[in-house]
Amino acid sequence: xxxxxxxFVLDVSGAxxxxxxxxxxxxGNFAVLGSSTITNIGSTVVNGDLGLNPGASVTGFPPGxxxxxxxxxxxxxxxxxxDLVTAYNLASTQxxxxxxxxxxxxxxxxxxxxxxxxxxxLTGGLTLDGQGNQNAVFIFQIGSTLTTASGSTINLxxxxxxxxxxxxxxxxxxxxxxxxxxxxxxxxxxxxxxxGASINGRVLARNGAVTLDTSPITRPVCIVATPTPTSSSTPxxxxxxxxxxxxxxxxxxxxxxxxxxxxxxxxxxxxxLPNTGFGPN
Length: 281
What we know:
Blueprint: E1 5-6, E2 30-34, E3 37-41, E4 45-47, E5 49-52, E6 57-59, E7 65-67, E8 70-72, H1 75-92, E9 98-100, E10 102-103, E11 108-109, E12 112-116, E13 120-122, E14 125-129, E15 138-142, E16 146-148, E17 153-157, E18 165-169, E19 173-175, E20 180-187, E21 191-193, E22 198-205, E23 210-213, E24 217-218
């Protein structure tokens, strides 16, 4: 298969194959999931569950706040770690990737799978364009580390959603000071969010620690497009007119003419001559 190579100064028209979403299983409920330790400094707010397994050391909450449930070395956290391994492997093996390298700053990427055999950086802004599809999926397969610079951003446009962006990191991820990050980090080792780094997504570490410093994290929820209902008017029944039957006229009897009987004419007797037997001439 011919790989497509992307320079860090060029926009990318799209990956060769559409990416399919990653089922996170029980790990999907977590905004933060670590393996060895979870350490926080400052007023971090975690919107979602926080879990640790097999380690047991969670520090910095408070002053940090968890708007969710903490699962520390319990069955829920153990299952989440198992499902994290499965999700990590699914993300790392999706085919049809566009090859990327260097720094992703300044790029506009369309849905698909992107692969780097080594480390990836982000300076400035990266734009992920969903092209009008709210189900568009972006998967980044990174062979080594992921490092974002201070103040870097990931911009989601045209329907792209953080819930459909996955960063499979072969080593550790570090998010720069006051950076803005979107997507779920599936790190083989550890995740560090430095001061003020905000995350619209998840930080999930398979084998190492999660370190936070005044880092707001919100577990993303996909917005499902509401189909526009097709306008269908209720048919108005056609009222058949009531036909009043026309009465059949009764025939008018024809009056029989009254026959006036002809008057009987009484003949006037002819006078006879007296004693002659003859009438007058």
